[in-house]
Amino acid sequence: MAKIKHHNFLNTVHEVFTDAKQAGVLHLYAGGKSFSGRTIKVNGMDLFHFGTTGYLGLEQDTRLKIAAIEAIKKYGTQFPLSKSYISNPLYEELENYIRIMYGHPIVITKNSTLGHLGVIPSAVDDNDVIILDHQVHWSVQNAAKMLKTRSVPIEMIRHNNLDMLEDKIKKYQHSKRHIWYMADGIYSMYGDYAPVKELMTLSQKYPQLHFYFDDVHGMSWTGKNGTGYVLDQLKELPENVLLFGTLSKTFGASGAVLACSNPKLYDKIKTFGGPLTFSAQLEPASVAAAIASAQIHLSPEIYKLQRELRERIAYFNACLSATELPLIDQNESPVFYIGTGMPKTGYNFVNRLMDKGYYVNLGIFPAVPVKNTGVRITISRHNEKAEIKGLVEAMEHHFPLALEDTQTNPERVFHAFKLEHKTQNEPQVSTELTIEIFDTIHQVDKIMWNKYMGGEGVYDWEGLKFLEAAFQGNAQKEHNWSFRYVIIKDSKGIPVLITFVTLSLWKDDMLAQAEISAAMERERKENPYHLTSMVLSLGCLFTEGDHLYWDKSHKISDTAREDLLELLEKMEHQLGAKMTVLRDFEAESSWNQALYGHGFLRVQMPDSCTVDLTGIDTMENYMEQLSSRNRRHYRKDIQPFFELVQSEIISKADVFQIQEFKRLFGEVQQRNLGLNTFSFPDQLFEHMNDNEHWEFIVLAPKGKPKTILGVMFCYTNQNAAYVPAFVGMDYVLLETFSTYRQLLYWTIERAIELDIPKIDFGMTASFEKRKLGAMVHEKYAYLQTSDNFILEMIGVMEGQH
């Protein structure tokens, strides 16, 4: 499989959001001429509001509203001047109140995103390292990435994994001045907590460990003076902790706040902090509202408000405990998450709840893994017990209906979130379709397989027999692949869908930039299996092409597709795979919507190349039908080298030649870090040499047949397709003899000589192949992962190396 184009994260997010927007659950507009907080008008319907982050309801407090109005009357809508020069008249009063709340020096920022951009580059020195919890808020990750330009290493650990954190600390404890661990206090999707006390214990063991907590979702509803979850756990703010809170969300106003007990570090941040220096200051109305809220926070009233919210949270927890709804994390925060698994189930569930009068948030990628879609429910003081109970009753009723509508079941949802499910439903068995699963091609009818799946790539019946033999019984685990063949037939025994999948070990950075893979390969010198995972893939890493026969004209083709996707999900669990990859789809595939609905992300692959030789009987005829530009390329860049080289077709190589073939292939494979795969087993080349369907196009300097410049490894698929599966080349002499272009030319000539009507040229070097007349086809793959860790870790590493 060739190098996959670097994943464009923004394009993928756009596609996912567009899908959700079309389902009517994202990018909505609230209606109405006023807003109470308890209800929200959406699409003309008044819905009970369970999506706010204003947990205490202070944004509707009359005191905050009056203060904001009076400030506008006195000072205008804004104070248009950098705060570095002069602050508006209300700022000093606000800063004094917030300082009293925290008991430490504070910095007020326009919002938390700009605050992180200002504080992190100021706080972290060039000789420091940053370690991110992979669920820490995007705004923290984005600010941390700015330090790549200063060569500050950025690492990532799995969510709340203290063992992994300690391993990273040990890696840097003797080389870095400070080790910064960055995390949320309360995580915004699942409502779970950072293990603050355990982290403080770890810092006693490693004195250079520092912490940067974003506690905006823990603010106001808990802690002394409403200063949040983290400070409530710490009691006192240590000098190795920077703590971010918010003046928006639950605080009811606008802005954010940094608390710092280290005087030197505080002065450094306060004096010059990028956006802290140059950004516009908070508007007078926001400052005045924040002052009114701070006065509440500094009064006994804050504890009354917190208690009222806790009562509602406890009531919601009690109502949920009487159901079998998949609550992802049970705790005392105001954030709850009910899993739906597939995005299309989430869309259906959200729409059903809105139809019954309840507004909840959709949890979708990139905030959560796509297959961990669900609904985020937030409880606030606006909510009354009657509507809390009503929401739970509506969810209990409509959750199974949403599953039924989207052809899924509770077991699949609970599996997706690694939750136990006590009630086991009987599996739904379709009477219209029969699913056959085989673990070797020898169990599959040869004529039937070749009729539907033969004719391209190395996966006709004989090709798969060859692959099974080559990738089994090897000493190293990465060289042993498990094959599964899936045939779905209708009631008359006619195939509706046929495919094969493999389970194999992939490097997690296989699709990453070459620089990232180079860095990971340095780690793998100590641990060869560092960041590797078992992957369930359509086809295999050796094959390219349309790995799927699907009769879309069949009346139950959609049912067959659903059955396959559910089967792959079960296989992933049974075989212990961490990712499922469906490959080689056209740009306008009719599978696109279904795969998004099932939690797959689309990434663009390199263009695929084929050559049509229909009606071509000589190489001269082939060259004549090329464009004038491509004929010039041939005369300039290929023909002049004919006198320097000789080509030979070898069907049975000797021992020396096989060793050279291995060496030359190794040169290519080691340089292709853009597609960072494990090597192939040695026995692959011996099996190839013993198989009548394989031959080698060998290029050597004229008169020196033992000096092999390059070799093309070619497979003949039923005389219907000629498949140059991969190449080996001597890179020292590559340009001297124009080796690669020569091999492409001789491959085309060989296919014409064999009277084979098509060449499957694969996905590498499409630019060079196009110049020799290849047709180029846009291809896509779909990925489904159990979590976002690898995607986010690779995103963090990009640009560091």
TrEMBL record:
Superkingdom of origin organism: Bacteria
Keywords per UniProt: Aminotransferase, Transferase
Lipid biosynthesis found in the keyword field: no
GO molecular function per UniProt: transaminase activity
Residue stretches making up the Aminotransferase class I/classII large domain: 50-391
Cofactor requirements of the protein: pyridoxal 5'-phosphate
Hydrolase keyword on record: no
Protein's UniProt name: Aminotransferase class I/II-fold pyridoxal phosphate-dependent enzyme
